């Protein structure tokens, strides 16, 4: 084969290499943020109750049933958007819904819950954000799905929408409840 | 019922496409005219079936038929009519139907305007087109069926992504697809030529108008997308080197190279294999773009909902089409006879240099876009490649290209007298130097490099005008004589001048808006004023407003300059409750020399609002330039030699003794 022929072969060779990478790329997911905590045990925390009307939240409370832990704050506008949705999810029998009140003043959070309703079984107050750091929270709202053994199975960043619930959360919860 | 008719029509289209992809090809190989004639009939039938399918889907959207899964997922009854219609292609499944519709329309256009094509070439071109249609129709029917029903039907739909509910973006995809898919015609011609083993001037003359159409539409499509990003994303930028943007830019770069090399092929019977390769590459990059956007291989701000099964399908199709055509190229292209010779300094030489720069640019963008994937696939971690890379490598490639565009059109074919041309363009050089000095003076101490961009723009613009003045012998002969000469210049030459002038406008806009943009980001309270680039922006606060399917926080600014009123601006921060998604609507006042651009953000909880104010000099010239470029394409397309039967007329006129120099233009 002479060099002139090789020149004409070059495009298809380059394309072949490209395809090998594209094929490999299909099995990689670039959008997943590496969550160090995925499928790991919930870090140990013990948060005091928000006020006398609620029960506090500790990592030990998350063992025994499938739970959703929603990290929220009264200063967070998307949380306000998400809240009516959480109200619909309250007392559903399929899973426990707990809240972590993140870097908030207890009286603000109380006023917020009085205004919009309280969907949570337990609310831990994380005023200084320490538990948030352990959980790897980097924006509110965030929602963790935790299985019966107390392992984090999924983290949803941002407000939960109907389609998020149907696409990701409910199938997972159903699987974990079996 | 209508939905099922649409589904059946799409299946019928696939069957017809299968016939069209095989029978005429066999006919062309055997020289059987009846089998070749199947191509035209099939192309017409395919078009009719796909139109039926498209209209059925559109009907489902317009009537908000939420029993169709695709409509329920992407539409909403409270959506304005424009976005119900645009919603058809605002999602993966529907956009594929638009894609095949455009593909079939191009097929129909080949039948309609290809009367003077040799029958075998026409049959093969239509066959290759149909082969592409088979791929996309199967993709649609087997992995992304737009007509799937859902039971029970939801009461209302999920709505279209609010970011996409915008007039600019409603028309962005059709133009983009007209560009992408338009390159399929050049591709089909290239494959047919490789099969026949013959590429000649006639072939190039057939390919060029189709490339021009595709290129013009793609130019408009990219400009619309960038315009949308400019006013909708709210950061005052107009190009982010996002993978999806790059996916549309790479075929444009390859297509621009093809546009130029096809001229050499037509006029001088040279660069044949290279032109064929570019035709394959331009369409391959369109397909690659489709793969990148829809497979989820790369992250992007506006990727479609992705699905690995779809990725596998497109990759398979990509390997079949691109791998197959490049293999065919490797086998057949060496057989193409080399054409006319030319000296390095000549019009051909200029176009070869243009092609080298454009292909390097396309390769550079490809490398930058796929680099994160390469690194990830090699297990070396996750990286992202951003604007710094692209700006660093792209600008040094574009600058010589613009210098070249200012001089190459004045070079003669075959062998040119470079020193003679340089001596002639003293005026152009003088204008360039003056503008350069003026902008260095104006910009002193503030991004002086921008002055060189303005200098490049002045060089290209003045050279286009100078070249025109020379051709019509302005001020050397009487005004009437000049006018007659101006009328006699072929439209293709005007097309080139317009397109190059558009590039000059674009370069000025890009340079000025990146080098001398002024921005101010701050928290403002009602009654506060901020001064940006000599304009006073008085903030009147924010009121709550209601749209048809959103609520908005609407800010109000009064802009004055030296006491005189310039504009009232109402930027909005919208919230779409159906999708639970906010969007930013920048308020823009344009003077055509600059844009005043205001965005209102979130409240700080203490009565203040975060606001962003930008002064973007010459930014409208970016889109103006792109439109002038596309207009140049359209004018060039109207040149008489592209019209049906034109080659014959042309030959007669040549014999009648028209000066050969005019024809060579």
Summary, kept brief:
The complex is a heterodimer of chains A (178) and B (665). Chain A has five helices and seven strands, in the order αβββαβαβαββα.
3D structure, described in words:
- The complex is a heterodimer of chains A (about 180) and B (about 675).
- Chain A has helices spanning about 5-25, 75-90, 105-115, 130-135, 160-175, and strands at about 45, 55-60, 65-70, 95-100, 125, 140-145, 150-155.
- By secondary structure, chain A is α/β, with parallel strands linked by helices.
- Chain A has a single domain (about 45-175), classed as Glutaredoxin.
- Chain A has a five-stranded mixed beta sheet with strand order 5-4-3-6-7. Chain A has a two-stranded antiparallel sheet with strand order 1-2.
- In chain A, strand 4, helix 3 and strand 5 form a beta-alpha-beta unit.
- Chain A is elongated.
- Chain A starts with a helix and ends with a helix.
- In chain A, about 35% of the residues are buried.
- Chain B is an alpha+beta fold.
- Among the domains of chain B are: about 1-165, no CATH class; about 425-515 and about 625-665, no CATH class; about 520-620.
- Chain B is about 65% helix and about 10% strand.
- Chain B contains 21 helices and ten strands.
- Chain B has helices at about 1-30, 35-60, 70-75, 80-85, 90-115, 120-145, 165-195, 200-230, 245-270, 270-295, 310-330, 345-375, 385-405, 420-425, 425-440, 450-470, 480-490, 490-515, 620-635, 645-655, 660-665; strands at about 520-525, 530, 535-545, 550-560, 565-570, 570-575, 580-585, 585-590, 595-605, 610-615.
- In chain B, strands 2, 3, 4, 5, 6 and 7 form a six-stranded antiparallel beta sheet that branches.
- In chain B, helix 10 (about 270-295) packs antiparallel against helix 11 and helix 16 (about 450-470) runs antiparallel to helix 18.
- The longest helix of chain B is centred in the first third of the chain and has 32 residues, at about 200-230.
- Chain B is globular, with a radius of gyration of 27 Å.
- At the A-B interface, helix 1 and helix 2 of A face helix 10, helix 11 and helix 12 of B.
